[in-house]
UniProtKB/TrEMBL annotation:
InterPro entries: Aminotransferase_I/II_large (IPR004839), AspAT/PAT-like (IPR050596), NHTrfase_class1_PyrdxlP-BS (IPR004838), PyrdxlP-dep_Trfase (IPR015424), PyrdxlP-dep_Trfase_major (IPR015421). GO terms for biological process: amino acid metabolic process. CDD domains: AAT_like (cd00609). PROSITE patterns: AA_TRANSFER_CLASS_1. Its EC number is 2.6.1.-. One of its GO terms (molecular function) is pyridoxal phosphate binding. It catalyses: L-aspartate + 2-oxoglutarate = oxaloacetate + L-glutamate. It comes from Haematobacter massiliensis. Belongs to the class-I pyridoxal-phosphate-dependent aminotransferase family. This is Aminotransferase.
């Protein structure tokens, strides 16, 4: 069968690592999962209870394309609670995860062949989804001294961009933009007619200061968020997007045709999850402790070049002193230490051969055990350098 050029996207390497870890587990090994970017906790109780109720009483047929009105209103209220913003629920588009929101946003904003900036390092699927839509992803390199967040000049240097995607907290770095820095990026994009897309999927998971939403700065942006991370609902495939008022109908027409509606059962559960903030803030206490353990333990193990993350549940480490092949290094760590970690190549095609991402979204006991194994592995590697791959 023939296939398209735009379908030739790269694999999501972390998924391949997950598969290698699964194979090792099937063969009887015990693996500590520090590769996956998903909470170890289930959806909050209120989400599961809401769905249980709906299963008895509701046919769960199609909903309207933009999502259940009650859910859109509930999400708008979250903006009042988190950022003090009065958001018109009409601007909220419920989507099949933030991944579904990217498809809608990119289709609504860009024409085939247009150039769209993505940060390096950054979430790999932006680039691949853009390619699959016949768009041209342009890597905007960020510097470690800027904590892997872009500066206005980095964006200007990329030349004529139809759009720019920024995430704060970022994946893989976990670093955040403060209000002034985010405002400068939004102004830079506005000045050149570049659509600003703010990926805010890790909002709610922050350690020092609250994350700033692009909506606190401008209404002329696309903001994308999800129930996957703070709300601990990855597999439910439910997220949302906030668009400028004059884009609602444009996105609605696309959503009707591409998806009909987001999954109804997941919308019911998401509405329940909005009322579970105490339980979810409890998960945050676990991430806080995990982060503390890793920031203390990783340097002792030998991973010294790490920047403390402000949010999310990742630590991005420069391992250039140890390898120039992060794929092989991650495979060696999985094989010898029984710890699955993600090679940086997923996030940065240029420098990612010398970086690794550690995820600390799982239970604290797993993180402790992972650290023990990493420490032993690194000690052995130091003692027997010849065994290095
Ligand atoms: C920065 C970022 N954006 C988007 C996603 C996709 O999330 P979902 O489609 O589950 O909402 C992820 C997943 O890890 C991510 O890290």
């Amino acid at each position: 069968m023939r296939s398209s050029r735009r379908g030739q996207v790269d694999p999501f390497i972390v998924m391949d690592v997950m598969e290698a870890a699964r194979r090792a587990e099937t063969a009887g090994r015990h693996i500590i999962h520090m590769e996956v970017g998903q909470p170890g906790t289930p959806a909050p109780r209120g989400a599961r209870d809401a769905l249980r109720g709906a299963l008895e009483s509701d046919g769960l047929g199609y909903t309207v394309a933009l999502g259940l009105p009650a859910l859109r209103s509930g999400i708008a209220r979250l903006y009042r609670d988190w950022y003090g913003i009065e958001l018109d629920p009409e601007r909220v588009v419920v989507t099949a995860g933030s991944s579904g929101a990217f498809l809608l946003a990119f289709s609504a904003l860009f024409d085939a062949g247009e150039r769209v900036g993505v940060t390096e390092p950054g979430y790999p699927s932006y680039r691949q989804i853009l390619r699959a839509l016949s768009l041209d992803p342009v890597g905007v390199q960020t510097a470690v001294e800027n904590r892997y967040q872009p500066l206005p000049d980095d964006i200007r240097r990329a030349g004529n961009l139809a759009g720019m995607i920024v995430a704060s907290p970022g994946n893989p770095s976990g670093t955040m933009l403060d209000r002034a820095s985010l405002a400068r990026l939004i102004e830079t994009c506005a000045a050149s007619g570049t659509a600003f897309i703010s990926d805010e999927i890790y909002h709610g998971i922050q350690y020092e200061a609250p994350a700033v939403s692009a909506l606190e700065i401008s209404d002329d942006v696309y903001v994308i968020n999800s129930f996957s991370k703070y709300f601990s609902m990855t597999g439910w495939r439910i997220g949302w997007m906030v668009v400028p008022p004059d884009h609602v109908r444009l996105v609605e027409r696309l959503a009707q045709n591409m998806f009909i509606c987001p999954p109804h059962a997941s919308q019911v559960a998401a509405l329940g999850a909005l009322g579970c903030r105490t339980e979810l803030d409890g998960n945050l206490a676990v991430y806080t402790e995990n982060r503390r353990l890793l920031l203390e333990g990783l340097p002792k193990a030998g991973f010294t070049r790490i920047a403390p993350p402000d949010g999310a549940f990742y630590i991005y480490a420069d391992v250039s002193e140890m390898t120039s092949d992060s794929l092989a290094f991650a495979a060696e760590i999985l094989e010898k230490a029984g710890v699955a970690v993600t090679p940086g190549l997923d996030f940065d095609p240029r420098r990612g051969a010398q970086t690794l991402r550690f995820s600390y979204a799982r239970a604290t006991e797993d993180i402790r055990e992972g650290l023990r194994r990493l420490t032993d592995f690194m000690a052995e590697r130091k003692a027997f350098p010849a065994s290095r791959q």
